[in-house]
């Protein structure tokens, strides 16, 4: 108990004094996970809408892949990305291994299925008659997808928030393809793992607190944005 209490006290001191290493790690973590979430949203949300509103050949296979991806172990994703980016791999010439770009790719693959799956589930709960009415009015498929996404904005924001949570909390894949290199690829989750292994519990707790605060702020912003969008829609 004394160890936990002293770790909390030391962690607060590090945060209050603006420890440069802690801030640098937090900044890189937010950049990597933010970019991964943005890309996951741009890919996953339209894909989820397509799966919910269209019937096409191969849809069942694609749904199964998305559902599998939602529970895919991150270390498997890390292994896949490492094989792609290794010097002798298909994308080895890009030189992305052990860079933030590799971590963004790994987190993208982890987060995108979650964004797609939750978006598909949200749109699947909407009234199917709305889709039929839009098509009767002559709306194209792109317009139908857009209008249904607008109708499910709060739920879609939840999907994006879940994707961000999945990305920023990921450890195994980022460690495997990023290498946890100081000042280059060390992010909050991999730094916590390292500091605990070294017995530096104060810094580990400080990094953990920063991770929790970042996740809370992003989710709060998405929730408030969704509430404002809902109020505007009802006005």
Could you characterize what this model shows?
- This protein has 235 residues and is mainly α.
- It is globular.
- α1 (2-16) crosses α11 (201-234), α4 packs across α5 (100-124) and α6 runs antiparallel to α7.
- It has one domain (2-234): MetI-like fold (Orthogonal Bundle).
- It has helices spanning 2-16, 20-53, 59-70, 74-85, 100-124, 128-136, 141-151, 153-168, 172-178, 188-198, 201-234.
- The longest helix has 34 residues, at 20-53.
What are the salient characteristics of this protein?
globular; 11 helices; MetI-like fold; 79% helix
The CATH top-level class label:
Mainly Alpha
Shape field: globular
N-C termini distance: 53 Å
**Taking Cα atoms only, what radius of gyration do you get, to the nearest Å?**
20 Å
- Number of E-type strands: 0
Helix content: over 70%
Class by helix and strand content?
mainly alpha
Low-confidence stretches: none
List the helices and strands in order. HHHHHHHHHHH
Taking all residues together, what is the mean pLDDT? 84
Tally of individual domains = 1
Number of helices: 11
Strand content: under 5%
CATH topology: MetI-like fold
Largest sheet: none
Under the CATH scheme, the architecture is Orthogonal Bundle
CATH homologous superfamily, by name? MetI-like
